[in-house]
Amino acid sequence: MNDQPGTTPEPQAQPESPQAQPQAHVRTRRRPGRYGIAAMAGAAILGVSGLTYAAQAGNTPTTAASTTTGLPTQSPSDRNLSVLPLDRQAGSIDQAGTTEATAAQEAGLVYINTTVDYGAGQAAGTGMILTSDGEILTNHHVVEGATAITVQVVSTGKTYQAAVVGYDSTHDVAVLQLKDASGLTTIKPDTSGAVAVGDKVTGVGNANGDGGAASAAAGTVAATDKSITVQSDAGSGPERLSGLIQVSADIIAGDSGGALYDSDGEVIGMNTAASSGSADVTGYAIPIGQALTIAGQIDGGTASSTVHIGSTGFLGVQLVPAAYRQSSGAVVAGTVADSPARAAGITQGSTITQFNGTSISSAADLSTAVAGVDAGKTATVSWTDAAGTSHTATVTLIAGPIG
Fold first, then answer.
1. Contact 32/113 with Cβ under 8 angstroms?
2. Measured between alpha carbons, how far is residue 128 from residues 108, 132, 316 in Å?
3. Which residues of 292-329 are buried (b: 16+ CB within 10 A; e: fewer)?
């Protein structure tokens, strides 16, 4: 969720002194520029995960401290501030020290293009083909907030519609399924875990989100079993990605979900984060074995505290950020057309106090409660309108943007 109404959070490094603070890092996804309906309350539309992350190496969490209005602009410093899946309306980022990927490196890769904010924005990332009938592995943040997903197979150029099988937002993994796909070339994963400092690697993906030939960024393994702590703008507490491979490779916007290859041409990781605030990029990848274990749980339909299966339940309320609330509860800034909230009669200025038997004291409480109800299921919602009248209604959640 945004820190201010009508603004879009942009991951940015915290101010740092030369000696006092470690280098900051961000996940390799930049939220696309928002306008229109989402500008009312940013990403705080229930059913859309409005979390935008900044990350810092080590144990101290740091928050995304700045926001920008409208579409992001490109400046010489953007290269160091934003290395996240691309807003197609923003300019490209120079990627020094890279080459075009070989045909072998492109085999098994896909480009993922998403529509977000109800058609008001687009973003792009990368994915890897797991099965010949079109099961795709990618980062959760590549598809977060998407209302439509198209996937292009890099080696053939063929495009498919895709649906989300499930995701694990805590570990930044998602599984997609292409419609009517067959005969696809899959990646060759190396799940042995035999990754050592100094090993040569190449990060391959849809750098800058501009399609065409994949970009290949060569480097070496700088460290293994690294952890980075991420903090949401909503203030819902730090999250931690652990066991990561740290590499000195020029991984940038659009590379998220792409392959990290070893010198044998096998996939040892999935690109997911990179440095912010330094001209020398440090990349991070989720070990492929870890990602595939989570993908297997998703395939098995086994939901858990971190794994969500299927579509995301959607209520359709836009919420006032916490800094602007004057009372307990989730304060409604507006509702989405044709949503369950609109049909129930929830209006601007209402305060939601209970959802499906759970007391609601904040927007974060409501987000968590809605996330616990699948699309197509019913739930009760209680609220007090702007005039002080109490209401309770039963709503049926619809499928919404990916949480």
1. no
2. 6, 11, 32
3. bebbebbbeeeeeeebbbbbbbbbbbbbbbbeeeeeeb
User: What is the token pair recorded at 69?
Assistant: 């209005």
CB under 8 A, 24+ apart: contacts of 303-308 = 303/166, 306/168, 306/169, 306/170, 306/171, 307/166, 307/167, 307/168, 308/166, 308/167, 308/168, 308/169, 308/371, 308/403
Cα separation, 345 vs 368, whole angstroms: 22
The Cα-based distances of 24 to 67, 238, 246 in angstroms read 17, 15, 13
**Mind listing the pLDDT tens digit for each residue in 287-337?**
999 999 999 999 999 999 899 998 888 999 988 876 666 678 899 999 988
- At residue 5, the pLDDT reads 31
DSSP 362: S
Nearest to 203 by CA among 114, 94, 286: 286
Give the number of C-alpha atoms closer than 13 A to the C-alpha of residue 109, restricted to the C-beta side: 35
- Whether residue 35 has pLDDT greater than 60: no
List, in sequence order, every beta strand (DSSP E) within 169-309: 173-178, 200-205, 215-232, 238-247, 259-261, 267-276, 283-287, 307-309
Query: What are the residue numbers of the active site?
Result: 141, 172, 256
Residue whose tokens read 């529509």 = 115
Instruction: Give me the phi and psi of 142, to 5 degrees please.
Output: -65, -35
